[in-house]
Amino acid sequence: MSYLTRLRVSKNIIIGGVILLVVGVAVAIGVTLSSEPVAAGLPEGEISVTGDSLVPYSEGEDQSIGLPAPSFSGPGVDSQIISIKNDGRAKAIIFLAHWCPHCQREVPIVQDYIDTFGLPKGVDLIAVATSIDKGRDNYPPTEWLQREGWSSTAIYDLNKEIAKAYGLTAFPYWVFVDKDFNILARRTGNIPQDLVGALLVELGKN
Amino acid sequence: MRTLIFFNTLFGFLTIVAIVISLAILYLIFSKNIISGSEQLRSFLLILPVSVAAVSSIGSLIYSEVIGFIPCEYCWYQRYIMYPLSILLIYVAVTKKYVRVAAFFAGTGSLISTRHIYLQNGGGKVGVCTSDVPCTLKYVEIFNFISIPTMALVAFITISLSLMYYELSNEVASE
Question: Do B131 and A24 make contact, defined as CB atoms within 8 angstroms?
């Protein structure tokens, strides 16, 4: 095959490729222009944490058991500041990331338990939405929790300060605090619904 | 956010085009329809992998450098294969040598992508996302099934199939 014929063959392929790319770009522009802008953003408010931070969580023996939990405050969904401190009630604190598929799975499981059985007496359940990232999936977390019908307290840890103080290393991250505001247990990963219930009931006895 | 929608749609579209081309090549292979006489097709079979590898490499850089997604461990493994493969495939297209070496690398890349997709869909360590950049995280999910490793898998498969079909058509031509 002569050089000129080869050139023509390559030219056809290049033209085909360019047409394909132009079609792709046109479709992308069309979809982008017709997409609705992401509504709303995050609540505003200052995060504050007092008390000693816990060591980062790892599986195995947990040195934080029995230590006082850090008190913290941060904005709720309407930007009102919510404080979590020693008030004589046991607490289950769940740290969530809106982009984490396991957190997305955990929230309806927990909410379903609460809808069915309610929270045990003397126990508070607090969701701390942290590692908030506009560029990641399922943003903003405010809309996500509302969509899931989350009925308990939710605090938005805008600068990851609360997560850091509690030694978060993975999501979802559960921290159980007794009525004296000392750490009872910490664990990461999904908890099955029956175990969620058992842990909350057990927490109510502490 | 609009930049992300633009690139997601563009790369989603190109992924679907690559899937259609791969299915067409698969059909030709399984129907034993090995076209050896068409120089145009043989050229296409070498230029297609170069284009796919180039778009994949540029795409991965757009996602990390323009959009700001931080690559996870498995993303890096796939990059380690795709970036050198882009260079190798240019060499393959020019010299028509090392076709099987390039196909081997593309095959290895597709295994890594498959493992990454498995992790993203609940495989591996159950129920945990690490707090930094977990491999379980789906940064994007276009049309409900195209995540970044899915794009990489389709790219690696398209490259492998093109090179495989090129080799088969060479063998038929030499018979």
Answer: no
Q: Which amino acid is at B27?
A: Y
Structure tokens at B5: 């929608």
Closest CA to B21 of A17, A22, A11: A17
Residue A68: beta bridge partners?
A182
Count residue pairs from A and B with Cβ separation < 8 A: 101
The parent domain of residue B162 ranges over 2-29+37-174
Query: What digits encode the pLDDT tens for the residues A32-47?
Result: 787 765 556 788 899 9
pLDDT in tens, A141-164: 999 999 999 999 999 999 889 999
Contact B9 A27 (CB under 8 A): yes
Euclidean distance between CA atoms A10 and A32, whole angstroms: 33
Q: What is the CATH number of domain A48-205?
A: 3.40.30.10
Contact B146, B81 (CB under 8 A): no
Reported ipTM: the value is 0.70
Q: Are A92 and A174 within 8 A, CB to CB?
A: yes
pTM listed for this prediction: 0.69
DSSP designation for A68: B
Number of domains, chain B = 1
Amino acid at A122: G
Amino acid at B76: W
